[in-house]
Structure formats: C-alpha cells, structure tokens
Amino acid sequence: MQVKNVMTTGLFLAHPDTPVTEAQAMMRREHIHRLPVVDRHTKRLVGIVTEKDLLYASPSPATTLNVYEMNDLLSKLKVSAVMTRDVITVRPDDLVEHAARIMVDDDIGGLPVMDNDGFVIGIVTESDIFKLFIDLFGTRESGIRATLRVPDEPGKLAKLSADIVSHGGNIISIGTWPGNNPTNVVVVIKVRDMTREQFISSVEADTQEVLDLRET
Fold this sequence. Notes:
This protein has helices spanning 20-30, 51-57, 67-76, 96-106, 126-136, 156-166, 196-203, and strands at 34-38, 45-50, 110-114, 120-125, 144-151, 170-178, 184-192, 209-215. With 216 residues, the chain is an alpha+beta fold. It folds into two domains: 3-134, CBS-domain (Roll), CATH 3.10.580; 144-215, ACT domain (Alpha-Beta Plaits, 2-Layer Sandwich). It has a four-stranded antiparallel β-sheet, covered by helices on one side. It has a two-stranded antiparallel sheet with strand order 1-2. Strand 3 (110-114) and strand 4 (120-125) form a beta hairpin. It is elongated and about 70 Å long.
C-alpha cells in the first residue's frame, strides 16, 4: 500500500503571515490538528504548524493580561513565529509502512506529501494509518478472529490458509508477528463462512497453540 492510497487531499493550508488566531480558528472549524504552511507566491512548503505549537504560543493561564489584551497579542502573532521549519515529508509513492515508521521514530503525527515538483498534494496522519489498520484486519466485518502460534517453517502459512479454505472458510485478513522464540510465529487471522468448530478443526494440524479465539 502506498501513501497516495491513504493520504488526505483537499488540504487546508496556512501562510507564514497568517495570524495565529486565524490558524486556531481554522483547526477548530475543520477538526484538524495541523496545517502545512506554504509561501503565498511560490506555493512551496515552508513549514508546518500544529495545535501544540499554537497552544504553546498562547499566553499562560497565569498571565495578568485580560482577554482583550490576549486576543490583541495573538492577532499580531504570525504563524511564521511558531511553525516548524524543518519539515519531514514523504512522496505519494512511498510505502505506508515507511511513513508510519517515520512518524513513530520522530514522534510526529502527520507528514506532508510532496509531488515531484515540490508542491504539497496531501498529508498522511496517524488517523489515516489507524483507518488502514482497521481495514487490513477486517475489523468492520463479522467473523472468527483467532491468534495462533504456528511453526516458522517454509510453506506453513500457505498450508494453514489452504486448510481453512478446504473447510469452507473465507479468509478476510491475515498477519504475522515474531513468536516467543525463533521456531514459531504468531498469526492473527480473521475468517468468515465457517463455524467455530469448523475453524478449530481446520487449523489443528498446523497450529502449535491457539492463543485467542473469538467471534466478532
């Protein structure tokens, strides 16, 4: 899966001279948490501003300023003063897992997506990754969801899948994780069109242990 398949388009943008109060209002109105900042003339990305940036820019609750003075102060403060200038970006053809790894490693919640000409064409966020995670695991579909410990042997996953299909099962999703030792892997699988008993019968020859089994 590539970034272009999950990214959000139709972006809301800020400019370096956008007042902080305007950026805050836009985020609240559109229910978004970050705004790419582009130059008004070149349309090139020059930064990104987040809710946290704007929160830090706001006066402390302990300030002696009254509400009118605070609003006047914020209206004069521009996005350029609080935005992050060194922006990490991705390309639309980058793999989703590459974008996810960057977000985890750099502790950031969203990445602007740049085309080959250097213009912002989208943004991929934690929410986009979560939605993909839900879809990959067939969370919205009903069926049998099982976590199995399976020997880490060539062809074992193919045989497990074939045995489920031979018992009438339709595999919705399947994923693997490293097991508790090098000889096994943990398989999370979701199937439909079979009973609990049929599923157990279909996997018993291929499975070391059933760690979890539930109907969803």
